[in-house]
User: Fold these one by one.
Assistant:
Number 1:
Amino acid sequence: MNGQESFSIIGNRKQKSAVEKAAQGIFTLCAFIAILAVASITAYMIMNGTPALFKVGVKEILFGTLWKPTAAGPSFGILYVILTSIIGTTLAVILGVPIGLFTAIFLAETAPKRLAAVVKPAVELLAGIPSVIYGLLGIMVLNPIMYKLELAVFKNSETHQFTGGANLLSAVLVLAIMILPTVINISESALRSVPPQLKSASLALGASHIQTIFRVILPAAKSGIVTAIVLGVGRAIGEAMAITLVSGSSVNIPLPFNSVRFLTTAIVSEMGYAAGVHRQVLFTIGLVLFVFIMIINVTLNKILKKGDVEQ
Amino acid sequence: MSSIKSSKIRLSDLILKILINIAAAFSVVLLIGILAYVFLKGIGSVNLTFLTTVTSTLKGTVGIAGNIVNTLYIIVITLLIATPLGVGSAIYLNEYAKPGKLVRAIEFTTETLSGIPSIIFGLFGMMFFGTGLGLGYSILTGALTLTLMVLPLITRNTQEALKTVPDSYRSGALGMGATKWYMIRTILLPSAMPGIVTGIILAIGRIVGESAALLFTAGSGYLLPKGGMGILKKILESGGTLTIQLYLSMAKAEYSTAFGIAVILLLIVLFINWITKVLAKKLDVNNME
């Protein structure tokens, strides 16, 4: 024990109880920051997101399809933006989840130790790469490929507006890649937490390893895998910087080869110069995104609780 | 009927096995591809001038020194605020709180915080710290915004570390007459240190890679702080981090700068990844004792 404190670890009684109380008070305050933060974020999003809804009209904003915020007679319909986020996220999950789940099966079940030792760190590194770098690669690698594809598909079309490859499809591919690490990590731990007796029983009955994985282990890990998918949805719908430039720069119906705006990218690309009602509508877009995220969070909480009860 | 020992392989098994291997190979190939592409494209832009000067049309230099300094500012200020709060919160949850509604509310909100997308943090930071508190586009606004973002990371890692400290340590210290605070300060925190440090390093990784939450809070200033009081004043001035500069260069189609910054960012990511591995190993060794 070091000099200054060696006289007594108990200390004088009065001082002791004051210090004890202060410590407990400070720690309690720290813990309240999280509650405070979520409460004020919710309050601020509602406070700033709703004025435009009253001014322009709920129907005009949420179900309007024309986005001309800076025109003389401005129009603030964000339906296509909302649809883009929903469809883009859905497609990204459809692409990303099978790859992620199969990789998780590889890591948890079939991989020889040496190969797992290569794949696992690779996945961890992919998770650490900043989203702007995914965006940069999207522009430099994916967009030119998409442009070639676009030229081939719409060779004889007279109505198609060419996007140079910055379209929904490029954004979906970037998102699918970006949700991989989340899906892989969560489903891997779900697969690993399946009781080994189930596996042994299935193998003992003569099922092959692959049959056991798909018929026994996957169903047993269901709630963990659903968690992985929901987290993947959350990650995809909230991603902004990676797809801002990759997805193009105008609001359109979310078709694969259209230049589109997501909820997130609309905010990123227009907040810098927006003013007045335009700015307020961008906050409304933020509120819509926030509502989606809260729905995802509550769903997640429900799944996790249910999982607890089952166990 | 064939024997259960026969090694005949079912066709569906074979196909699935191949798909599993392809999926696993995909991540590795993707990572190698990304690293190779970025390094090949960007390594040429990285030199001493690039790292030590500020972009200036007058002098004809392209440099990211200002952005490097801004990134460091934001890391340090964010951690100075977030670490005590996060560790304190974890201590409360693990050592003081009794299970109940309050703890569930705190844990739910901590989970929620980690699920909120960074662009929402950006909007909130801009409105609350920037406009509400009048801090404008500044490094402090950015750091306060990021504090909320990395808080769950530090809380969770500290909590995990505290859980691994054996109860006998606690009862030992308390049984010898130590007060609870004394026990926390001299027994718990030192034992939980590797976990806390891991949380801090993960937070650094998050801060370095963050962009959406900073664009409308810390802004895009790229100048170096002026000496003397300027070093302190910088905190209230706008400052774009490396990722923000990468985004802006990319939007202006200045790809050589963008790839140069990407190389630096990837090197930082690789380093952080390595150091967390080292720490995790250390934590494991501690647990085995």
Note: Chain B has a mean pLDDT of 90.
Number 2:
Amino acid sequence: MPEQAGYKVHRQVTGVKMKGAQIFLESLIREQVKVIFGYPGGSVLDVYNSLYDAKLQHILVRHEQAAVHAADGYARATGDVGVCLVTSGPGATNTVTGIATAYMDSIPIVIFSGQVPTMLIGNDAFQEADIVGITRPCTKHNYLVRDVKEIAATVKEAFYIARSGRPGPVLVDLPKDVLRESAVFHYPEQLNMRSYRPTYKGNKRQIGRAMEEIAEAKKPVIIAGGGVILSNAAKELATFARKFSIPVTATLMGLGGFPATDPLSLGMLGMHGTYCANMAVTNCDLLIAIGSRFDDRATGDVNRFAPSAKIIHLDIDPTSISKNIKVDIPIVGDVKEILKDSLAIASEQKVSKGLHAEWLKEIEGWKKIHTLNYKQTETIKPQYVIEKLHELTKGDCIIATEVGQNQMWTAQFFAFDKPRTLLTSGGLGTMGYGFPAAIGAQVAFPDKTVIDIAGDGSIQMNIQELATAVQYQLPVKIAILNNHSLGMVRQWQELFYQKRYSHSTFAAHPDFVKLAEAYGAVGLRATKPDEVVAVIKNALATPRTVIMEFVVESEEGVYPIVPAGAPINEMILV
Amino acid sequence: MRHTISVLVDNKPGVLARVAGLFSGRGFNIECLSVNETLDPTMSQMTLVTRGDEQLIEQIMKQLNKLIDIVKVIDLETSDYVGREMALIKVNVDEARRSEVLSIADIFRGKVVDISPHYYTIEVTGDEDKIRAIIELFKPLGIKEIARTGKAALQRESKERKA
């Protein structure tokens, strides 16, 4: 058993005096880290020197932002903690966007940054940046290690904080002299953090109250948020929803937490959600929010959100509860645990067949009024590309998206049945996230199909990672929906700024096919609808990094859309 | 409404910056803040005064609790507590006003800690209301400068004997 063999190695190393850089790598091994995404530099030369013979896999990216997004994609796809390593100064500041991305979506990653030697800190030294100060607002926690004897315990704490409670990014700043000093290696057995005690078990009385409300409700709806996936609660949620016949809508971050193809699935809610999901939430009498934080994209105008509903809110983070929406029955805890306890309470209950039949019929009525659609024309429609990607992969793949129209069409037209199959920057909305995240997922699952669905704007933000993908022979597929514009911005300018298209058109673009080839990847292009299937099939059959460029309709919009300030039942449908 | 919040924190580098950053990042207001060691050198005590309605105060309490390094958060407003601040007030004096300044200081059990031909500096300790009152009384006489400390606050113990 590999774990046991590793443990034997550990025994040899405890009590041995070694350099800080080695202590650092040994600590990572103790945390079961298998891969680091990183980029070297002066402050971390000692770590890279030790890494040269170490058994840890290291993926060399081409920009530190991509290292963080890749660790993030790795974490979302596997459920493990993602790890990245960068140098001080600009290396560290380049990680900030990636860290903020992970922070907004509660993704467990640990970022190790080199730092100038301790005696130079605060001196405006070469490649010095106060990264602890800069990332204080966008990390769950961060550390500056001042003594080599603190390295092991700090690493242990960092991983614990990143993965426990509401997960999040943790940064550890490692000064060069600390990495060069020596100490005896001893990995702490236990942690004792008196100031950090997350709650996992839900309050029994609150759960009881919630179950009573559920039994009484005539028009219940479940909102499944990102927390369902972070908690690995998809199975419990499906059992729960089906047992009580409660329809389920998902936020962007919750897609895949409940099977999209299940008859109880309403699709996504919110600004670009489906008509029936938004109507169901607006007209329900009981709203059960599970692992969702009631973000403004999902709620629309909070004053007119679910006006007739009692609200039950399951969340591991007390600050999410009653922050935007007043909640009637809050239940703090791990949503998987709470759902298990709820099912245990209800195990004796007999649930009648045909429960909520009238409500489900009303929802079918809304589906008849409007479902997601688009018109086929002579130009390629982006929604068609996404449908074909789903069909030709049978949905058995991992999809990363960039941000904007590409992201919204993916959320609408790609049916996600399983958790951890959609990697998307929901909270921060970071263009350039998708490709490196796809790389991270592909490293985690070399045999799975991993596709980044991108816009022509977004893909250029981390295009340099083509080199990373090719270097490690990662067969990531990139589907560029090329409409020669910053699509979502263009759509808003069309709808709300009297078509004043200010700087939302890309007059100059690389030839993406030639660009792929320049990097040693494969480039394919479809310009007509009847070329789409062949391009996708070709890409899926090619065991290399592939760019598929789809030249799509430039004025296609994402619909429905709920204008800013409107309630979610007031959608523009056309 | 003004709320006095007592926060017990792990005495780690950056914890004050974290609390200040939390308040500024989320638009919460800090009216005053004081932080000091406790008997346990690994823990510090922070007393801060903020302002907001019930929902805002609840968010502030929860966000403070969420910070790693924060051990305990108590909203002192929910129970009986003793709160004290100290103020140094530099007041204008001339022949006509000198005795009035001294009698106001005396009424509030303040002390004169500095004398010069044109100014007296008065030191006064008390709760929020007392400090506000003495400042209001000195204003018409002319205040040159004020330096105030933050608030120190402790919960009152229950006066009942336990059975």
Note: The longest helix of chain B spans residues 54-66.
Number 3:
Amino acid sequence: MGTVTGRRAAYERARKRRSTVVATVSSLAVVTAIVVLVPKMPRWDRVHESFFNGERFANSLPRLLDAFVLDIKIFAWSMPAIVSLALLVAVTRNSRSAALFPLRILTIAFTDIMRGVPIILWIYLIGFGVPGLGIDRPWNSPLIWGSVALVLTYSAYIAEVFRAGIESVHESQRAAARSLGLSSWQTMRHVVLPQAIRRVVPPLMNDMVSLQKDVALVSLIGPIEILRQAGIDKSKFANFTPYIAAAAVFLLITIPLTRTTDWLIERQRRRTTGTRIS
Amino acid sequence: MRKLTISLAITGTLLLAACGGSSSSSDTTAAAGAGTGNECTSGKTLAADTLTIGTGNPAYSPWVENDKPESKEGFEAAVAYAVAAELGFGDAAVTWVRTGFDEAVQPGKKNFDFNLQQFSINDERKKTVSFSASYYSTNQAVVALAGSPAIGATTVADLKDVKFGAQAGTTSLEFITNVIKPSAEPFAYDDNAGAKAALEAKQIDAIVVDLPTAFYIAAVELTGASVVGQFPASASTTPDNFGLVFDLDNPLVSCVDTALAVLKDNGTLAEIEKTWLSDKTNAPVIAVS
């Protein structure tokens, strides 16, 4: 028995070594192709000057980091609002009470309309339209109404994520909770939601990464955040390098965020399935 | 037919002289209708015997009227046809393409011989594109709605607590941050349409634009708006000189520069300016101290 396990382990080690070698060789081939071949293209020097200009990069970066503070602020105050509103919409949509039927219809209309219309239109419509009705400063700030547009759009998407989570909880869980004497709301609050939310953490993180970039859209109605600042520098110097610099700043945030998401997905899969086929 | 041939021959000779560096004036109207370039432009245009000119999408008044550059109406449309005529291109040999700002400055091959949409000439931009000599210089101006705190300002100090907006990436926005230096950070928009919407929503008190645009917005586009004033040209840290944009090191630049010099000397440019742009002296001057 022991020899079989040993041979199998040795075989698996060999397979693993082989796949490591294949992965390394193919990665090297791709990188070499890009590094060697791209600079040989006829107008590479122009592209290099326009997109990867070290001087422009260093010149823009401090201004971009300054402007990025605004992105973080918008993200920070929008995210809790989005999650709360999305949860409210999802729970309402999954309610079973006959009396709540009109509210269910309303939430369906809300998710359909908010998701169906481009986010840029919402930002213009709410960001310029609502203050245009005659609201005075400071309550007509584009930061407020731009954030409202983001919150409404994103909560429609995230409500659907929560809904998927809620619906993935087996009906027997509700049945068991109700038979223990829990009310419909208590069942939702203590039995269904804790399981549902845990299941949707990975897709939720995915939407957070997306939101982290979409906060830049608020700049359409005035505030100068990182992407707008990059655009201003781009126009001034007729050079696209500031966008590369802005992308680098975004990556500083999104890469840890996406890695965490992957780690969460992996952990969840290990927890729920127990086996892994390579 | 014979008359046309003769007049073309005359224009050709005159243009040849112009390209040679002498500043003789020529009859620009003679080339209208026919003509496919002169000695200088030969072999240098994107498409043979055609002058391909780029402008904004859309192009705005008073630079191009009704977004129809081929109508020759509007300041830049008129300048483009005058330059074309001076280079020996008849109206039929001129084609228009539409590009955004970014398309005009991207590093790839250009789809136009030159592009005009109020590009300000600056040294930084010269590293990625080539500019012709300036065909127009403008001052920055402030536009505000009635009741705005900017109304009645006569010095920059009066504008310190005004909330400003401008089109992103323009000399106007730079002017706000570098010269006016208001206490509140300015807002920036994709285009002047956004800036106007913000004015109406009272999110900003005033916008800064170039003077001809200011007159146009106040007179046509925004009811209740007025030009508060213009800043003296000397106030700009970066003087706003508009130039035609070319692919970097395009050999056509010297031909166009010669043509522009002729148009400047013989008064054609001044005349076009008088036809399409408002009188600069109409706006009060805001002192910069």
Note: The longest helix of chain B spans residues 2-19.
Number 4:
Amino acid sequence: MAQSTTRKKPVAAMIFMGIVSVALYTTLLLKQDEVNSVFGKGGLYAFLPIVTAFVFSYFHGAFTGHFWTVVGVEAAKQKKEVK
Amino acid sequence: MQDIMSNFIALDTITILYLFGVGFVGGLVSGFIGSGGAFVLTPGMMSLGVPGLVAVASNMCHKFPKALVGAVKRAKYGQVDIKLGIVLGVSAEAGVLYGAHIQEKIKAAFGDAGSNLYVSVAFVVILATVGGFVLRDAWKSYREGTSNDEEKAGKLAKWVQSINIPGTMVYFKSINARVSVLFTIPLGFATGMLAATIAVGGFIGVPAMIYVLGAPSLMASATELVIAFVMGLGGSFKYALSGLVDIRLAMIILAGSLFGIQLGAIGTTYVKPFMIKVVMGAIMVIVLFSRGLMVPVYLAQLGLIDAMTDSTVKLLKTTSFAIMIFALLLGAFIVLRAMWQGKQAEKLQQAAGALEHGKV
């Protein structure tokens, strides 16, 4: 794996995903009463928490991934042979 | 649905930070060993006043997106066997449903104390046998100086791989052999049953993949994330149908755990595979003591032994929870330390390599 050690850090992507992530969390907490009353209904509304979890994990997952790369915590350069 | 809102507690900054912190440590351990964290998160949420079922449901709803992110990350390192994860995950789903059914029956027959006793005894028996075995195996390879060697399938795994039952054989890349699904189905089922009982199916799933099927530790722990995703998704939907998921709690824990799971996954690229066994075994054995402390409390509640004073019960409960937190923190400490050492070793190696090539 010829990976350059001077590879550009994904700062812009981290900032973008971070802003989206913060916006999602702010909305969830500001509108928590409305969210709880709808999500708590059950039945067909069961799709809402599942979809929410996927959306949050996409944006926040990308943000946290970029975050560790930007602060310099990355996987070992020489990959371990796992087989 | 009498009062929906009674299921949802009020959130303050301290609660949010607490959930974020526990989520981070739980995620770190999960990213490394494939599971963990749930055994602290569920009682942790209940201690904040969250009803038991809502705590279980919300924990599950943070688990599946976390496992997804972790599995994607570890797949990039070539550690995930998706086929094995899905095959085990589907049978684990059945195990979850059956495990939950047994729980309901026990609760109906013996009440909360009976149900708690069942969970604690399951914890103690399984963690003592499986956890003891995993830790002993890790210790053995450390003492024999074989911790650097490539992992080999044990006797049981070799036997399982040698059995050919026509029409049931499937090739799994992690094992690099064909194995009958008649072996994988009961393993997945047991993983699911354990997940429904003590919330951490990985304590059976990962050792089963290593010792029964012959998968390397790194691949077993990474593949467990796929199983956790499949189980968690199905379980969350089941609870969400009854409106039991507190999405705020689930997403706050997820916020911390996604930082942790990325770090734990990165950590696996720096350590020797036997470290997976060390962390898993250590956590299992410590948690065993934590749950063991609670057995007399439930026995007393059921009237099987003399009643205990309130202060004794409180002391045992607090000590038990503190030991669980210690188990998780110790796991996180071992992961971070192993990662740090691995990173330092890599730096030294790079410096030596540069010297050799006359770059410095």
Note: The first strand of chain B starts at residue 169 and ends at 172.
